[in-house]
């Protein structure tokens, strides 16, 4: 089982994002504060879980958490401020929306910006070390996957239901064939031969 959290503070929030490397769709972050006595043997980095487990654990996390929030930053904003800033902004927006103010923030990864005066720690592969970061990774992933499945109905030729906007061969071939949509990130290198892309 993962450790519950990084610090000794009662209200430590774990935060993580999903969709940073995608060609389409938002970057989605979540923030979670778990209760002091929270235990769960299955919760782990969302990438290590199958879809069925992720959706089951999402309801467990939402039911048991002291508080949680999820926030999307959409394509236009990603293109305007870049993906790193968009990822950090998504995490900040989540923390802002928490009903309890955290005393400490544990961040998955190695980049973050101060959130007010609240101390924070960046933890490489934190979603495989601490339950609160892993819980945030599960919420971010499941909410983003649900969004991509929804917009798949509008543009089924890109198969976002399956690839979730990641740069698979199939996704790149569809971009080559059909061009791009309002959901694509125009600042990203959507095709290796970018000049051939009709924007």
Automatic annotation (TrEMBL):
EC number annotated for this UniProt entry: 3.1.26.4
Cofactor: Mg(2+); Mn(2+)
Pfam assignment, any one: RNase_HII
Gene source species: Salinimicrobium marinum
Descriptive protein name: Ribonuclease HII
Name of the gene encoding the protein in the UniProt record: rnhB
Location of the protein in the cell: Cytoplasm
Binding positions (a divalent metal cation): 16-17, 108
InterPro entries named in the record: RNase_HII (IPR022898), RNase_HII/HIII (IPR001352), RNase_HII/HIII_dom (IPR024567), RNaseH-like_sf (IPR012337), RNaseH_sf (IPR036397)
